[in-house]
Write a structure and sequence with these properties.
Elements: H1 25-76, H2 83-98
Helix pairs in contact: 1-2
């Protein structure tokens, strides 16, 4: 029987100045992809990208659901007075989370 193993990548971005560098997810993902391609070739890059895409989608959906629960909890605690505020926050949250792609 073959055991499947999950591998995780964790990294920290450090900088010297008092102001953080202007980085976005595309810049970071581009550097990560280049590094994987350089170290593991096209096959390594292909296998990583195919596994990442499904994982990212699941993370996005989980984050949207979490934000929805938090926003509704704020509404029930009377910290949000208007249904329009709730709708606006939910839509903004969904847009920001779905914009994250690798």
């Amino acid at each position: 029987m073959v055991r499947l193993k999950n591998r995780w990548l964790l990294f920290e971005i450090t900088y010297d100045s008092t102001r953080p560098p202007d980085l976005n997810l595309r810049d970071i993902s581009s550097v990560v992809k280049e590094s994987i391609s350089f170290n593991f070739g096209d096959v390594g890059l292909g296998s990583i990208l195919s596994s990442i895409s499904g994982t990212i989608k699941k993370c996005q959906l989980a984050a949207i659901e979490y934000d929805r629960q938090q926003i509704l909890a704020l509404k029930h605690a009377d910290k949000l007075k208007d249904d329009q505020d709730v709708d606006h926050l939910l839509e903004r949250s969904r847009r920001e989370i779905m914009a994250v792609e690798i």
